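Put briefly, the fold is written as integer tokens. The lines below illustrate.
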Amino acid sequence: MIRKARIDDVKAIHSLLLLTKEHDGLVLPRSFSQLYSHLRDFFVVVEGDEVIGCCALNIIWDNLAEIRSLVVLPEHRGKKLGRKLVEACLSEAVTLGIYEVYTLTEQTGFFAHLGFVEEGMEKLNQKVFIDCMNCPRFPDHCNEVAMVLNL
């Protein structure tokens, strides 16, 4: 079941982001403070009473939002849960009146399958790069590609 995250999901989301950072290196970990501040951005997928995946829609500007922190536990991948999490975020973007969504990713095939297209980083709003400064790969070892979807 996919639903909006609740306060009692924060520790599970934090663990997901740390676990994925250690094993895949594909997402930035977030502090508890960041997660509590941005809890309303998150959707989670729950099986039983366990949070097994998450994704966030981060509003950047009046016409731009970011899909980030997409994680599904490895043993639950291949069930289209990542796709459903992204679709939940995209639906919320439309509800909010935001029609351009981007992501920074190494998983270009996954996002291309959802309709995202590669875009030059220089074309994105400068607010996009605030998180980049906290990344250990910044600036010389970044492998991420900007991908944009116009809804």
About this structure: The longest strand covers residues 50-61. The domain at 2-150 is CATH 3.40.630.30 (Aminopeptidase).
